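Re: beginner question about structure tokens

> Can someone show what the tokenized structure looks like for a real chain? I only ever see the sequence side.

Sure, here's an example I had lying around. Input first:
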Amino acid sequence: MAARANLRANRPGFATAVDPLVIVGTGLAGYTLAREWRRLVPDAPLVMLSRDGGELYSKPMISAALASGKGAADLATASAPQMAAQLGAEVRTRCPVSAIDTLRHSARVDGADVPYSRLVLALGADPIRLPLTGDGAADVLAVNDLEGYGRFRTALEGHRRVLILGAGLIGCEFANDLAAAGYSVAVADPASWPLARLLPQAVGTALRDRLAAIGVRWHLGTGVESVERAGDLLRVRLDDGESVEAEVALSAVGLRPRTAVAAEAGLTVNRGIVVGRDLATTAPSVFALGDCAEVCGLILPYVLPIMHAARALARTLAGEPTPVTYPAMPVVVKTPAWPTVVAPAPAGSEGDWAETDVTSGGARALYRGKDGRLLGFALSGEAVAEKNRYGRELPAVLG
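And the corresponding structure tokens:
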């Protein structure tokens, strides 16, 4: 230990050979990177810093667990100590990073500095909170991790009426899951149809109708103004003047990358922490990955992009520089009442939803560029069986 201290003292501002790789975050991005890197580098020191309990779980399963009767503990497949043993790592829990010193190569945790040779920020994202008024606004829940799901499950105990704020991906998945579990579900959103940012109107309307058939009530084209307590109920006032009563309210209006600690350290931040295809930030030896990272202008908080990025970064950190590539990656919406798959067109594409076909069994829409090339698609119902057929025609998202 003395030799290590002397080495650091003689070389301020530089990582030492004995300093660990430090990964901040134990979600899908952090643990996937750790596993992939450990396969390539069996013996080097690894430290993982978690702001929560550090359990391994599948985050996509959170919005599809109620109908199967699973609680938060059921979704966790390994504890932090178990993951530490599997990875040959030190996994520290309940220790958010408060600051990063990029000159001295250290992260500050609980008032102490953790030195790093390389630092990976897999910080995740926070749920966006609507600017709601009323004495019930603080009671609106959001679910973005295992602990949030546990609080939501606790709030549901003894209650049946749920209002979801937001008809995007997570809002629709929770609506389907809650309805299938026997809850009375309403959904409010300013858009005119569900998943309006991903689906054309015809396909979104088909999804709306199929979820309505299992009991979901829609309040579309209207936002939420206030949430007031009315005894055991929440009275939610919409901006069209209507009021909706519920026992539990869930906000699902999107995520905002966690960037504060990176910005305070002087890293370039835009919507997310700015990185290139090498996933390197603007600070030496600091990388970003997952929901917090803006890769070549793209924020893709989905499983497949995170997996591709983690594998590429693992090779880079192991000494084989590997730029991340994103093939076409259709997004599967977990709405069993009306299965839906969408492959959004690349950002900045010039084209239109040129071909749309809606039947009682399924819906299909193809997004074609001005030259006729297929750039994206939306499939639902029986048409999801065509995912691979159309997927083979799509260009890479980042090649």
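Each token stands for a local structural state, so reading them left to right follows the chain. The first strand starts at residue 21 and ends at 24.
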